[in-house]
Amino acid sequence: MYSKEELLLAISTVIDPEVGFNLVEMGLIYDASCDDEGNVKVTMTLSTKACPMHQMIVQWVRESVEKMANIKSVDVEVVWEPAWNITMADENVKKALGA
Amino acid sequence: MFSISQDFAPPFKLISPFFILGGVFYLLASIYIFFFTADNLFVQDTKVLSFVHLYLLGFVMMVIFGAMAQLVPVVLEVGHSAVELFYAIWPLLGIGTLLMAVGFLGYPALLPYGGTVVLISMMIFVMEIFSTIKKVKKFSLVISSVLISNTFLFFGIIFGLTMALGYAGVIEVDIISLLRSHVYLVIGGYIIVTLMGLSVVLLPMFGLSHGFSMRPLEISITLMSISVVLVVISSFVQYFFIEYTAYALAVISMFIYFYMTYTIFKTRARKEIDIYVMSLFFGYISMVVAVTFGVLYLFISYEPLLLASGWLMFFGFFGFVITGHMYKIIPFLVWFERFSPLVGKQKVPMLADMLPKKSSHAQFVFGAIGVSIIALAILMQNDTMIKAGASFLVVGAFALFRNVFFMINYK
């Protein structure tokens, strides 16, 4: 129903308040897919396991997708493999952080 | 799935008093320095003991306990066993600290009362942490460090209360022997092991560091723990070799820990030098100088070296590492409480927006100059320099106090 790019565009409205970049440009969203019934599966990670905003960020990702028309369900899976590192972020993020 | 529930997060009104009181005690301890003169500065002077308790219990412990209320669920990945108990901890710790500070100043009869109140406060804290740890299924190095540090705290406060009873003349004990164990259990065993354990969570999280080895931390915590146990043994078994082996292990532990933080810093993706990073820099440099002074003291027994070492460890290392983290933790807690429900509904501030930039930098500059001047003043036994350093420190402490309120009241 929705392409990966469309889903990523919706998720890119979620901003990490600590670093000030959205989750997609941070490279935290590993995959996103949607079947014909509107069931969405997002696979993501976080920059660190001990993130006190873990649950909130997952919730924001879910809500950002639910805002799209005809979405039936959103399943957000947080994975730790492969572990995130700064090379996964967009060039503008790396440049802004000085990485 | 690894999950930190929002339900685990304690309410801000439970944690904020710890930071406010921490700021008050930091200010009081800074003002206290004006009343020191170079000739009455020696380790067992009651004025020094009063000051040390005012600072360590009122500021260092108060802020660490408050931070632990928020960090324990993050680090242990389980909710608090009885988080409401934290409502009792800060008033008891505050009252007990004042009683002890006044008691050392000339009212020794107050010491057992102050000691008991502090003991109750800390026992509540330790027991709450222990019962929370019981819920943990899989032990990591960080969780082990929380367990180890709180075990040392448990024994440290029992030694402390025994000494308080001794000072007050209630019981007869060898205070000198107990003092060494008490200091080591609380400072090396609790404060330093806690800072070691938490720093491998917090430093990489704020710096976005990856790819560093945890092995140095394992070694440094192990060495520090052995060192603390050996010091306690040496308090009862007067054997020179045990005591000096303990000191050597503590020194090696601290340098390995410093190497660990250096590797975390080297691998960080966030290169900005903000107030947090500046505070950590100053804190860790103070630590290295403090340990170096401590080692020198073992060889030349010049007491001002020991005092300067303690000063740099307390106000330089503990002080700046803690204030640096206050600039991260308080905005997060306020943001979490006040702004997170508004995400997606209206524009919310970034965490960095909630920092008083000029004032936090002023606090850093005045604090760092104050700490450095007083370290020199202690070494040179110079009264005027102590007052000069205290002047800088008090301005920095007022700025910290203001900054805490600014962040807490950010709307």
From TrEMBL, chain A:
InterPro entries: Fe-S_Maturation_MIP18, FSCA_dom_sf, MIP18-like
Domain MIP18 family-like: 4-78
Pfam families (alphabetical): FeS_assembly_P
Source domain of life: Bacteria
Protein name: MIP18 family-like domain-containing protein
The species this protein was found in: Sulfurimonas hongkongensis
TrEMBL record, chain B:
Bilayer-crossing regions: 12-35, 55-76, 85-105, 111-130, 142-170, 182-207, 219-241, 247-265, 277-300, 312-336, 364-382, 388-408
Keyword terms of this UniProt record: Membrane, Transmembrane, Transmembrane helix
Protein's UniProt keywords contain Membrane: yes
Gene source species: Sulfurimonas hongkongensis
Coiled coil: none
Organism superkingdom: Bacteria
Name of the protein: Cytochrome C oxidase subunit I
